[in-house]
What does this fold into?
Amino acid sequence: MRPTGQGRQPEHRRPGAVAALVLILPPLVAALVSGGTGAVFWAGSLLGVVGAAALCSRPGVWWVTTGAPPVVLLMALLGLAVRDSSAGTSKLGTDLAKVVAGAFPVMGAALLGAVAVGAARTLSARRVRGIGVEVGAGAGAGVGVEVGAKGNRRG
It folds into this structure.
């Protein structure tokens, strides 16, 4: 746990290894099953990225977000390598181009999923702490603005 400052809640640290495994294993299994393409690969990649973003710490979400596209691409390429290990070089080049082009929409969806989880966690943490902005009549000099924890008047 982090030391708590004034008005801060302690943040429970989650092991990064668990989030890393969740980020890697579902896309890996899906790539091995589907060859790095198709609905199974989409589902496995999204499940892995969103699951890892949900399991890690709030700062760790941004590591998951930036790591998701390369992980998805590497798993797609690994799925191709396992599926077509005996293909000739010309067929391998064509298949490689297809897999890389097919992985881009999956990488984008995985990135958006991780960003959505990060944004939801940030918003929920702010609501739990009671941070908001309230505008109302100030203390005698016009308009006052309250920012911060409810009940702490500033302005």
Q: What stands out?
A: Residues 20-32+39-56 form one domain. The chain has four helices and two strands. The CA atoms of residues 30 and 40 lie 6 Å apart.
